[in-house]
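Sequence decides. Consider this:

===
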Amino acid sequence: MRLRFLINPLLKTCLLDACGCGWLAICLVVALPGASLQADILHLNNGRFVEGAVEEVAEGYRLTTATSSLIYKTEQVKRWEKKVLPEEEYLLRKANTPADDVDGNYILALWCKQRRFFKEADYHFAQVFRLAPDHREAREAAGFVYKNGEWLTRSESLRRQGYLPYKGKWLPKEEALALQDKEHTEQERQEVVESGWKILKAARKVKNGQTRILMAEKLAGFGVHINMVLIQAMNDPSPRTREVAIRALGMRPENNCAEALCRRLRNEFVPELQELLAASLAGHQNRAVICKRLVTSLLETSSRKKRRRLVYAFQVIQDPRLIPMLIVNSEYTPVQIVQGDTPPPPRKMIEVPDETAPEGWRLEPVEPQEDDSGDPDEPASSVRYPAAEALAVLTGMDFGNDRAAWEKWWQNNSKDFTFSEPKLP
């Protein structure tokens, strides 16, 4: 069956003038949520009226609905009442709003929000923030709050104040954890697991970003039993499911959640999710655990691509504790853990949690692997000193693997040090 998508002639003319492409205009209408073919009303001479998409043809008027297309002769029609649907009105407003117009995009974002066009509202708020990052009215309308010199979402602000989401409410951390521990029996744990997977599977089909954020907040309030579900969901084939799981884990206070986010950062290949992982780690409460876990991951991998993802996270987190951790490891190569009875060699990593090398295992240097960076000018030998390589990116200095030089530089510059600008690999 061939479908014919028609558009209000007045709107079509405006969009043709603005876009220079009729097909683009039609595609935009179809893409909008809740788009409908019904737009106009034909009032007939017999007192009846019919509603649908109307266009004038040689025989009279063609009226198209979702299920049929009929032609009414001119003598049958008393009056043609032209209507503009909200979806069509949005396209008209967007066509008349320049991309670099701060006030225009702000007004249009409010208009979209009032009509529950959340995806379009997010787009126009983003345009405002791109042109005017500190636009107070737009930030407040989008749900941001201003704290300590930066704009935060409401949930991020509450988390930094020590609150946790619990059953739709934000409670002090101790109270929320106590209620979670009290409630979750084995039966409730199973219910949490089933409910969690139900939400995560549904996320695969959810296109609206704001809805996915709400799903993540709901999952984060389920209690400790949801952690393993979220950790497993970060390996889901769907990027939307992984996004929801990452957001929810970022709201959880437990150490295993922070460590899981660190592990996922090495293997996540979607740039938007790499950025989200770094942001979730930057906002997590257990920064010391995160710093140690990220440095450990950096020293364990010989893949340049994975190391660059970790260095990007360092730039986003901007925790000064990272620099000393990297300096004390600047002389060491990536390592792998192998089973055996021999004690750890002298080159055992410093400032790394003890659980890195379980009892009865030892650490061995990893041989340099084939360069997978795609950059033929980068020497493969640099794989031997990942901490020194990361220090060069973060500081703009390059002392190679000379630990003494790095320590001297840090002693003289630690007070005034600022991290380099984050850049996705």
